[in-house]
Design a protein that fits this description.
The structure is a homodimer.
Chain A: H1 10-23, E1 32-33, H2 35-42, H3 46-58, E2 62-65, E3 69-72, H4 77-101, H5 104-123, H6 126-143, H7 147-156, H8 158-166, H9 174-189, H10 193-205, H11 211-217
Antiparallel strand pairs in A: 1-3, 2-3
The structure holds a DNA duplex.
DNA sequence: TCAGTATAACTAGTATGGTAATTATACTAA
DNA sequence: TTAGTATAATTACCATACTAGTTATACTGA
């Protein structure tokens, strides 16, 4: 029990809330913030708010200008590209490594995940499908015992997440996505690293977003 | 105390100092810390110390146990492996990309860096040689406009840095290292990505450290 | 009307006091 | 002596006061 609520601190609460609002663009890029305003709104003191701000600044979701103010960072397309770059090369290496490291229990996890993906797809529950997609990739990292790497990649892609929200990008072809997941699992379980890597590479190309259009529609966000 | 230089803030001063002490193992893995003790020692208040601690905890150099205490993290060989893994795959991709992106000014920077490496080697200034080695790789990341990625990789390798300090690992064969640097620059400038990547891969294998011996010598650090 | 300036309001940075949880210590009783 | 318990000391967490730097505002004078 204690282990679960180990981070029930006010600081963590504020951090999660603000982070969520930024990524969902409820706090739009460029929005002015202040420790006092936020602490009043959330009815906590400045200290945990300030500490949450500092963390978010390190993740480049906030920019703190000393003695002046704090703003929600604008979407940095260079950072988006770095996130994409790292994800591509690391995920390709991960599926290769997974081929030789996977055990039966982990294979079962992947297969179960895909079954649930199919179920969610049939039911039209795309929100859950999106989460299962994330979990699928997380399982691959866990197989390789590289959980931190996954977290860092997720952090590097927070600006991309905002792009996705802005574009209202619902995946257009979930069928293809799920099929690729199936292929990846098959190749990993059959220890075929080249095919697994190739499939992952194509899989990652599905999530490319049309940036120019968004930059025209929301110039003040970039 | 207003003895500050880099970002100016007390927080940054404390952060840099503690981080440096941890990486150089002046604060050994497992050492007990406390906000108050550190603030007294550095003659600052608890606030900037606390904020520096939080940052260092996110970088897994400190572990904060709520209401209990703070300790210098032990060396996590799994994290070391993750850092190595990410560095290997990203640096290989970086040299490939550098082949098509490098311009004459950047080529000059790389060549100058190598000249200075040779000079430092002749003079026996291995400390400077070590720093030039780091700068060499940094230039490659800059060519690809992926500075953040470089910083994140450096952060992921802080536990490895401690291993290196403990092992007193002075590079045994700088000549080979410098020669590989030369080869990489040549292949990048001649737009030969396969050879550049291959050389980088071998280059990174030179810095592998004998972990088992260290774990025997300093069991309390792991 | 407008430029320049003094001033007020606001910001993040720092210092410090109090709180609750944990841990070490001293004491009591068998 | 030892196990159990009450107590003291220590810790990180949170709230708040104060400082110094920045920015907006009102005022002054031409």
């Amino acid at each position: 029990m204690k282990n679960i609520e180990i981070n029930g601190s006010t600081r963590e609460f504020v951090y999660q809330r603000i982070k969520s609002q930024i990524i969902n663009c409820e706090l739009t890029p460029g929005t002015k913030m202040s420790e006092k305003e936020t602490s009043d709104k959330l009815e906590v003191s400045r200290t945990p708010v300030r500490e949450a701000f500092l963390t978010l600044a390190q993740e480049e979701l906030l920019r703190i200008i000393p003695q002046s103010g704090t703003i929600v960072t604008k979407i940095d397309l260079q950072l988006v590209e770095e996130g994409r770059f790292v994800r591509e090369h690391i995920e390709k290496a991960i599926v290769r490594e997974a081929c030789s490291k996977i055990n039966t229990d982990q294979l079962f996890q992947l297969e179960s995940n895909i079954k649930m993906q199919e179920f969610s797809y049939e039911k039209g529950n795309f929100q859950q499908l999106f989460e299962l997609d994330g979990q699928f990739h997380t399982i691959l990292f866990e197989i390789c015992k590289k959980n931190r790497t996954n977290n860092i990649i997720k952090q590097m892609n927070s600006h991309f997440d905002r792009l996705r929200v802005l574009s209202l990008a619902t995946v257009s072809n979930w069928e293809k996505v799920i099929h690729q997941h199936k292929d990846i699992v098959q190749y990993v379980s059959e220890n075929k690293p080249d095919l697994a890597e190739k499939t992952m590479e194509q899989h990652l190309k599905l999530v490319i977003i049309e940036k120019d259009e968004l930059r025209e529609r929301y110039p003040e966000y970039f």
